Amino acid sequence: MKLTKRLAIGAIAGGIAAAPAVAQEAEAAFDRLDADGNGHISWAEAYDVRTSEFTEMDADMNGILAEEEFQGPARPLSAFDTDGDMTLSLAEFLQGHRSMFDRFDEDADGALVLDEFEAARSAARSD
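Structure for EF-hand domain pair, as requested:
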């Protein structure tokens, strides 16, 4: 169900699940990852987008993100930096995203729906 429909239902029921700007941002991010537009984000879809994001951030194209290159939307570089060297390899970046993906795939079907995606985004912002 599109987020705007869910917000309308929430408003009718007496509450709004999220502020409109935040809701639109979440839906836009979800749609960007849902490459085939089927309403589910598979890890393959997320992998492709996250790999592209890493490449775009890697200004010096050395395959490593330094702290000044990293543009994490909600989490600091250290949240992905498994070896503690304050840089990120593509493997570390993808491992961090895969961990979040698996954590929030509540029904373990190998895909995230919008509700699961929103939960992951909310958790990342509060960590």
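The domain at 20-126 is CATH 1.10.238.10 (Recoverin; domain 1).
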